[in-house]
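Following up on my earlier message about FE2/S2 (inorganic) cluster. Here are the inputs again, as you asked, copied directly from the submission form:
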Amino acid sequence: MHNNPVTYAIYITVIAPNGIRELLNITALIGMTLMDVLIKRGYRAPGICGGTGLCKACQVTVIAGVEKLNEPSEKELIMLKVLGEVQENSRMACQMRVRPGMNGLIIKLESKKIYKL
Ligand code: FES
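Thanks, got it. Here's what our run produced:
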């Protein structure tokens, strides 16, 4: 019997609003969101929605690797539009599922609400 791995290693580049890049090498659990990964690496996004995709505090732009992501849900697309200022490839980090094969993803933090401790 073959079981799927529970964890896997990935690397993601994060570009802060001030242009500083950070390469994150992480061990991710199946089902984690990108926001979970950022929190694990010391970032905080004190949104009011608790990661339910309703406040846009965690907005990011995918610079490279959009094809490696889960498709945005209808709710995520609607909320991005409702909340305004969307770029092409805008996503909400709390709605993006991290998964194997995501290596090389580059994201830019669009919200100044996301900061690193
Ligand atoms: S934390 Fe509110 S939309 Fe992601």
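One observation from looking it over: The chain is about 15% helix and 30% strand. Hope that helps, and feel free to reply on this thread.
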